[in-house]
Amino acid sequence: MAMDTQFWDDLYRSRDQLFSGAPNGVLVTEIADLPPGQALDVGCGEGADAIWLARRGWQVTAVDISRAALERAVAAATDVEGRVAWTRADLTGTPPPAAAFDLVSVHYFPLAHQPDHTALRGLLDAVAPGGTLLFATHALADLSPDPEQGFDPGDYYQPDEIARLLDDDWTVLINETRPRTAPAPAGTHHTQDTVLRARRLR
């Protein structure tokens, strides 16, 4: 369910605006000290994070599986034309370019467990030496299974799991649960984020 194109297109088209239009608070906090470079925004949705990064000098590759989401993102990004490459792709099946990005930003992206971690390793490999991985999601305590939708939060990677998979090429800077800085999305009770920030050494 989580990565089905039709599901996400239908969800975005079910309302005029799905998200707030503001960048994620974790992103704003964590990249303030990074010099602009090449960024990969995974699951960019309506584009708020990518637009925010581009306005601060980043060159952004913004990827989503939903055409409806990308159409909205393009419409909102007229002032950063040329600084964001909007791309429709499923990164769980097609990995991004290796060692190409100074920042790989993954916020609330439903990355399902795989026995060989193929999709996750594709995202890790996309971080250039000296670059940053920023992975944030809802705390498990705030998530409940939804059998009707086929959703089990235990099916998806949490930051701590990813931290344990990182080898000596990485240093973990942050691996924690913290209060959300923005109100929870309508109809949810998300009060905490879990955050992993890691730097690739080589």
Continuous helix count: 6
Which spans have pLDDT < 50 for at least 5 consecutive residues?
Answer: none
| SS content category | alpha/beta
**Strands ordered across the widest β-sheet:** 3-2-1-4-5-7-6
The termini sit apart by: 36 Å
Order of helices and strands: HHEHEHEEHEHEE
Number of strands: 7
Rg calc: 16 Å
Amount of beta strand: 25-35%
Q: Taking all residues together, what is the mean pLDDT?
A: 88
Helix content: 10-25%
Spatial shape: globular
Largest sheet: 7 strands, mixed
Characterization of this structure:
With 202 residues, the chain is of the alpha/beta class. Helix content is 24%, strand content 27%. The chain has helices spanning 5-13, 25-30, 48-55, 67-76, 118-125, 159-165; strands spanning 38-42, 59-64, 84-88, 101-107, 127-138, 170-179, 192-200. Strands 3-2-1-4-5-7-6 form a 7-stranded mixed beta sheet, sandwiched between helices. The longest helix has 10 residues, at 67-76. This is Methyltransferase domain-containing protein. One of its GO terms (biological process) is methylation. InterPro entries: Methyltransf_25, SAM-dependent_MTases_sf.
